[in-house]
Amino acid sequence: MFQGLFSFGHSLASFLTPTAIALVLASTLVGVVIGALPGLTATMGVALMTTLTLKLPSSQALLVLICTYVGAIYGGSRSAILLNIPGTPASAASCLDGYQLARQGMAGRAMGIATSGSVMGTLIGMFFLALFTPVLGEFALKFGAYEFFWLAVFGVVVSATLTGGDPLKGWITGFAGLFIATIGQDGIHAFERFNFGNRDLAGGISLVPALVGAFGFAEILVAMQERRPPVKLSALDSVIPKIRDVFRYWRTIIRSGVIGTFIGIVPGVGEDVAAWSSYAAAKRASKEKEQFGKGSVEGLMAAETGDNACVPGAIIPVLTLQVPGSAPAAVLMAAMLIHGVKPGPMIMIESPQFVYDIVAMMMLATIGILIYGLTLTRFLVQVLRVPTTIIVPMILVLCTIGTYALASRLFDIWVMVAFGVLGYVLRRFGYPMAPLVLGIVLGDLLEKNLRRGLVLSDGDLSPFFTRPISAVLCGVLVLVLLMRLPLLRRLFARRPAQGVA
Amino acid sequence: MSIESAPDTPVSPRADFVSALVWVAFGAAVAIGGWRMDRLENLHINKYEVPGLVPGLLGLAVMLLGIALALRAVRQGALRAEGAPAPTAPGGRTYMAVVLGAMLAYALVLVGHGIPFWLATWLFVAGFIFWFDRGRQQELGRSTGRQALLALAYGAATSAIVTLAFQEIFYVRLP
Asked: What is the Cα–Cα distance from A49 to A30, expressed in whole angstroms?
């Protein structure tokens, strides 16, 4: 315990340099602005910043990315409260009560609640990040080829099932993502697959250009399609968070923080699910249920605490299992690999201090959002007035040159464009992108471990089902799939589902 | 996973059916590609290490899921008249085609094909803003000349900042 605190203090002290502080302030601001602007998501922000931080030392680059991530999830609440448009999907639940509070002339108070909820959520998530990562890391050492194979399948299937939308379409994109990861030389014999003689493609599809395409290029196409009308904003009251709001709803904050963190840990299930689950749990437990959706302080607090607690939660499986808990965490993981940091079960043995570095980065990001939450309201209001038609070409320029900067080759731009167009078309047909991305990230893990497992058992499939951890993962997976069958769903449904809104 | 905004319009069973057929064809192609792939027998590798194994299985999975989606779409009326997609707003497709065309022109044609990056970026940003921000500018009562001037200014600022940042700070050899 004290060793952990000491390590955390050591990490925090190492970041207290003028350069690091300047990076924290700048990247959190970028994150908040990206999060606040409807159409620009946290994933896009982290992916773009990955391309901009290639030349920085790894610790500073990751500091920038984590601050951007935390800032973007927090920034989404601004447009949710002021415009009733979630800046990021994670803030959709905040629209319900945040916008109602704004309509009642309490926009400033709502933003104060969002700030305190976000700060508390990140702190709770940070606590669990520091607490669980070493434990889970130690547990992950028991994982072999069979368990990692199931983990990869589990991530894709659960992501498609739990993120809303159509699970069947999610599974299709998930498996397509796993296939995309196999394009290029295979990891064992370097045999070129599905590259059709193209030398660039033989190197495989790089994750970052694909992500920038799917979440940058595709999202700006969607933003252009929506053609938002000009923004009209009303006057603001004080944005200083009220301490009594925190004390009054402490149970809601802790509950939402715990829910958010644990949803973050589940592979591929991110901040939006965390926010909605926290909101639903708060509504169930509240004494003021009738206020929810009409400007409930408790509802807004729950949603904001939940989505921000999810951020550290989503990083826990990245560090311990090399499996991302959310889409921005997938980009973060790719950035770690680019910068030579290898997360996974060995992290607590090879570089235990790194885990506390991440916790310290979270702490600095939390301070960043607190500062901007108190000071930047009027600036952000001005940012929200900037029309999409002016932002879009600038973002496209950054997507293009940022992707090119990764390896100075035009092929990466083509990959970015291809995934952008593919992402846009898939979205038009109602296919979720999250499982596709998770598939691309986990494809290598799945392939290597399936082949390794089969070689070890000489083709015997039984270890995939009989080893204890494998059996549990496989059992949960089967349960998740069976629960999607209409017959079983009808059997277990006690009453018609009630919407959280 | 918080990565994209929610789908804006419901998808018709007909559209699901068409996309399912595409997935079935794609999955089948991948599965066949995996099956026909070199098994490196001349290297005497373990039969479970053949390079086509995993892609083949994944192709098969995509194909089966595609069939399931197609069957569901048919059950929902994809082949009946009511399963057809709702008509799109007039001009919507043309507008998006122009947007996509402009974006593709910049990323695939202007960048990296002889025109200096700063000029390509300036032209693209100015042209994009001038064309697509016209409606808003007209509502603000700005003349065409002023709109063009503003667009050129936005383009110049973006081009200068991005070029300088990537060239001088990140040391990237711009395309």
From this structure: 9
